[in-house]
Amino acid sequence: MPLVWNNVSSPLCLLQLISGSVIITAPDERDRGYEIFLPSDTEVDFRRFDFYASQVRSLDVWPAIHKMASWDVLMSRSRIAPLLPRLSTLRVLLPDESNTFTHEAIWVRTFANCSVTSVYLRVRYGIRTPAMGFEGFCYLLDAIARTCPGLRKFSLPSIEDAGESHQSSPSLLTHPTSRNFLSLSSLCELQIGISIFSEDFVQVVGLIPRLEHLLVGRDQRMGLMLPELSPFTEKSFPALVKLSFLHLKWSNVRALLGYMPLVRNIVSFHIVTPAEKAPRVWQGATALFLLVNTPQLSELDMLFNCAARPYNLNDDQFLNVLSKLPLRTVRILGAQFDAISSIPLDKIFPNVTDLSLPQQTAGLQCLSRFAIMPRVKRLALAFSEGFSVVQWMSECEACCPSLQILDLRVTYTADDPDLEEVYPRAYIHVVAKVRPLLPRLSELKVLQVIQYQEDPLTNEFMWMLAFLSGSVTLLHFVREVGASVPAISQEGFSCLLDTIVRTCPNIRSLAMPSIDPNLDEEHLFLHILPTQPISECILSLNGLRELQAGVSIFFSNIIQEIGSLAHLERLTLRPERSEIELPEVSSLAEDAFRATKMLTCMYMSWTSVRSLLGYTSLTRNITSFRVSCPFETPWGEWHGATALLRLKNMTQLRDLDIEFPDSLAGPYHLNVDEFLEVLSRLPLRTVRILGAQFKTLTSVPLDKIFPAVTDMILPQQKADLHRLARFAIMPNVKHLAIAFSEWHGKNDWFSPSSVCCPSLETLELTLTRSDGEALPEIYPRAYIHTVATRLLQMFPNIRRIIWPTVGNNSYEYAVLCLLNTRIVVLREWNSARSRIVERYGQEAADALMPNESLLARALELLV
């Protein structure tokens, strides 16, 4: 049975299997609606439904569009036996404006059973916890308690109104709601709305014996103020270790953190604050002081939704609270320490191994403040300029002995001093001579931000000098936005390579900047003059496996040394800021790039690509080639055709990946005879071409061009059911991705296919449409059996049809699911019929299986 039945995102796929079911589609501007009718109890046939229902593990329902008109039939059947006997997860999506949830509760009661371990009722849009009336709340909770004794995860709606009509009886534990909560003895995770804490029966929530994670969210009662006095007893929450607050008012956060039975054993605390403008003193300070009540806390995750500048965490009492907690992981977004130099981080976070402060700006001087943390392994900060060299020199002995990965994004402030102030000779000398700040760092990425990508890499280079160590194996200089490589002066490039060679003997992956002869920064590099020529530096990178560089390296005098690297497997080339013209004839040695198997050309001109593909020393051993094409108007013959004719030099090419840019004129046309002739001579296994198509598919002998291809990815290649036969002649294809287009020649739907492709297992469909047009119909609805039959004739071993671009709640998704279902049914039918013929003969098969409606009966006989 295919995995497609494990996770069902719409009940339509299942209900259509019930004999006699009728589903009426009501188009809507936002979402399609479906009204589902079932025959009466005496006429309904569940056999096909039961066969596939037994495979379902997860079901998503959206009652707002899935409207059942025959509940009595389903509910009667569910009382006899579970409809989905192996269902483990049931998700019910609710519209944000709804507050009755009558149908939602019925869906839960009908499909929930003893195998269900997770039930989620959530709004589709918005962040609040849904709410329902008290009677509906009790009905839902009773249904869950009765049918799901093994429930482990549950998101529970709030009660719409806390009127006197539903207050608890004098004996709280005999209240029906309380009894239902107590019966959820296996529950480990519970999500509730804040207003639940105003109900008397909330005390019983604390008695759930295995509850480990409690999520408390905002609901419709925005003005609710919780009492200061805890409603729980010392025996409450015996297993609770994780607590999450989602968009709660600070006053209610303060109240909940004051409930000692709720928080005393917490080891993980997560909070997302409501959106607000940052005041001078953030309102959460006094609320979070009560984290002192969580003496077991090891993981703290806080997200401040601040519309203005980040909150300032420099509150002595708050920091004092943090220092008393056994924290290991701290993640704080939307806040920073404004006066980091005054904070003893080693005292506040003595045991923290993972500290993430993405809004914390820090210079090298500030980094030394974080370096005193004795156990930190991962650190995320925003780096900026502007610091006292003298003060940093006095503190640089501190280091981060455990830090292994650092992503360096340099930012700038209005107060940054002039570069000649920041980088005097004394500073350069200190950076080059002092022992590494990060002695165990393995990966360093230097990102040139978009605001300064026209500037030289001087600042980023200086940061790199400070952090490099002998343990680094990956060093990348890249731009935040744009395809071209960053640039550095000749002096800077020499210093960079010299420093890498001397400091990082184990470098495996390097993305290096290009040399811009127009940049002059000699005065900044006087104290780190290179000790050897650039060519010798390149030769010293004898362990390099991957190199990313500008295409100008083929115009430089170091290309010979790069080509001689014995272990260089991957080469990625990018354009320069200014267009350059490569020589037609290569000066490379005949044995250059002998280990290079993978070549990537990113957004370079076709002229450069053509020149590169003519360098036989570079291309002869390539097995994987990727090219992202530059933008050009694709009228007539595309410019790359003549360039890619030189793919003939890649005699070992197995994987070809070509990405054309989006164009208003439509996809590029691949019907270039010379290009197709070249492809036919290559030992290709995987072909992926984006933004292009074969305009005249019928004239292309795909079996001759791609005889060994197993993966053919052409997301812009339009093909209907009839034209799919052109791909079925490919003898070895296993995965085919195309764009489905509607076919209007309806007579062709009935024409049996004369070709058969037994190798295909996966058909991937991309549904495309022009502006103002509806998505194409997958097949004429009246001919579903014919379409499924033709697909199985062409692809007898097809296992699944996938559609990654189609939304799960769309009409098209439901149609494709139905097509998948029919294909599976027909395959099982054909298999069963063949087995009967083999065991009992043709006559028995004809008698037992005259048509597919008896498939379920036949399969039962063969179990």
Explain how this protein is built:
With 863 residues, this protein is α/β, with parallel strands linked by helices. It has a 27-stranded parallel β-sheet. Helix 4 (102-111) runs parallel beside helix 5 (134-147) and helix 18 runs parallel beside helix 19 (534-540).
Search tags:
single chain; 863 residues; alpha/beta; 27-stranded parallel β-sheet; three-stranded mixed β-sheet; 30 helices; 38 strands; flat; disordered C terminus
Give the helix/strand layout.
Blueprint (H helix, E strand, L loop, with lengths): L6 E2 L3 H4 L6 E5 L6 E5 L9 H7 L4 E4 L4 E3 L2 H10 L8 E6 L7 H10 L6 E6 L7 E2 L1 H14 L5 E3 L2 E2 L16 H8 L5 E5 L8 H4 L7 E5 L24 E5 L3 H8 L2 H4 L4 E5 L11 H5 L10 E5 L7 E2 L3 H8 L5 E5 L1 E2 L8 H4 L5 E9 L1 H8 L6 E7 L4 H7 L9 E7 L7 H4 L2 H9 L9 E6 L9 H10 L6 E6 L7 E2 L1 H14 L5 E3 L2 E2 L18 H7 L5 E5 L8 H5 L6 E5 L23 E5 L3 H8 L2 H4 L4 E5 L11 H5 L10 E5 L8 E2 L3 H8 L5 E5 L1 E2 L8 H4 L5 E9 L4 H4 L7 E6 L21 E6 L16 H11 L5 E3 L8 H30 L1 H7 L6 H7 L2
Parallel strand pairs: 1-4, 3-5, 4-6, 6-7, 7-9, 8-10, 9-11, 11-12, 12-13, 13-14, 14-15, 15-17, 16-18, 17-19, 19-20, 20-21, 21-22, 22-23, 23-25, 24-26, 25-27, 27-28, 28-29, 29-30, 30-31, 31-33, 32-34, 33-35, 35-36, 36-37, 37-38
Antiparallel strand pairs: 2-3
Helix pairs in contact: 3-4, 4-5, 5-6, 18-19, 27-28, 28-29
Give a brief rundown of this model.
With about 850 residues, this protein is an alpha/beta fold.
